[in-house]
Amino acid sequence: MERVVKTMWQGGSKRNKTLRYLKEASGKPILPKDVENLIAEMRRETYTSLDDNVHVSELLRYFGESPVNAVNTFRDQATKMTSCITFQIAHMRRMARKFPEALCMDATHGTSINSFMVTNNVGTFAQHTLIAGETKLNMKSAFKAFKQSNAAWIDVKVVIIDKDFTKLDFFAEELPNATNILCHFHIIDYLKREASKRDYGFTLIKNTHVRILITMMVRTEDER
């Protein structure tokens, strides 16, 4: 049965057809996810190159084969190297379409250290982006892909960003009608780390008071 499925996959058969065959041949309640896992295993068996670049290209091509997924690759014209890769699954696009009003943009570094724990389950991912650096060009490429795959981007009312103040100008250009908000958590964390540097000469006690004052200033509702 697996040999037949492999032949169907290599011949370009659609997943629905493969699913139908597996249900009829096995007589079991096969799920679409089972077909995805089976095909993914077959793909891994076809990998013969030791070049990571080839593997990434193959994975992106396979990912983009699904009509409900969206994948985009951007190259730096100066270096001829890939500088930005974006991808969305159907669930991400659906959530972006249903709840476009608030958009949060954050860059994560060294995520393997924390097993990619970068969400608190309050929101949902709208797009994953791999970039060579947080340059304006890369951010522009990432948001260009987001616009192309999500028509509801025009309904974004609020943009929440981390401590990177350069993003304020970027979103002011891309979303002139949206309100930009700096994330309190990122600002407080950044200022506390800055205050802890030896350059400022704060003692341990002074540094403790400074950290408390930073938190109070950021969270105050008084603009005076």
Automatic annotation (TrEMBL):
What InterPro entries would the database entry show?
A: Zinc_finger_SWIM, ZSWIM1-3_RNaseH-like
List the Pfam families: ZSWIM1-3_RNaseH-like
The segment(s) forming the ZSWIM1/3 RNaseH-like domain are 65-180
Per its UniProt record, what PANTHER family does this chain match?
A: SWIM-TYPE DOMAIN-CONTAINING PROTEIN
What is this protein's name?
A: ZSWIM1/3 RNaseH-like domain-containing protein
Q: Which organism is it from?
A: Phytophthora cactorum
Species lineage: Eukaryota, Sar, Stramenopiles, Oomycota, Peronosporomycetes
